[in-house]
Amino acid sequence: MPAPRLLPSPPDTALIEIGIDAVDFGDFIQLDWQPAEGTRPVGYRIYRSRQKQTDFAVLVELSGTRTSYIDSSGIQLGIRYYYYLTALDDDQNESLPSDTLSYLLVEKASLLSNTLEPQPSFSWHVGAIPAEFYVLKLVEADTDRRIWVTRVKSSYSQSEQVKFNYDGTAAEEALRSGIPYRWRVDVIGPAANSGSESRWKSFVLQ
Asked: Which CATH superfamily is domain 5-105 in?
C-alpha cells in the first residue's frame, strides 16, 4: 500500500491551520494527513521519537476515517518530537511510512490584555527567552472573519504591546462597537516547525 502524506506546517499567518502545528488549548502538537490517492485504509499507526532517525515507537493506532490527531501524551516544551505514520489494510498490513516531520513547542504568550479607548492596543507577556517574532491574529468572534493578522518583531523584553492596525494591514480601519472580537498571539519559534499559540481572548467595544 502506498504511504499516506503527513502534512507540513501551515504558514505562520494562516487562520485555517492544517498540518503539523501547535494548538491554542494546551501544550500539544497537532498532526494532519491525507491517505494515498486511490486508497481506503482501515486504520493508521502514528510513530513518534525524540531522535531524528531512531527509537520510533507506536504512539497510537486510529481508525481509517481519521485524518487528524492531537498528541497530548507527555509533550515537553523545548523538546523536538519526530513523527511518521503508516496506513493499515484489511489484513493489518502496513503501508510504506510517510515522510518524517517534527515539531518543537515553546512557552506560550500569557497575560493577554487589551485596551479599548481611544485606540485599541494589545499586550502580552512572554517567557524568560523572548522570541524574535510574534503573530497577532484578530477575528470577529461570531464568524471568525479575518480582521487583522500581523507579524510583530520582538522588542526582546518580557512584555510586548502593539496598537491596532499600526501597520495599515487590517481589513477595517477601526473596530466597530457592539461587535465581539477575539485575538491571540502565536510565538514563532527559533527554528523551523517550532512555536506556540496562546489561548484566545475576547472583547467587545462599547
From this structure: Immunoglobulins (2.60.40.10)
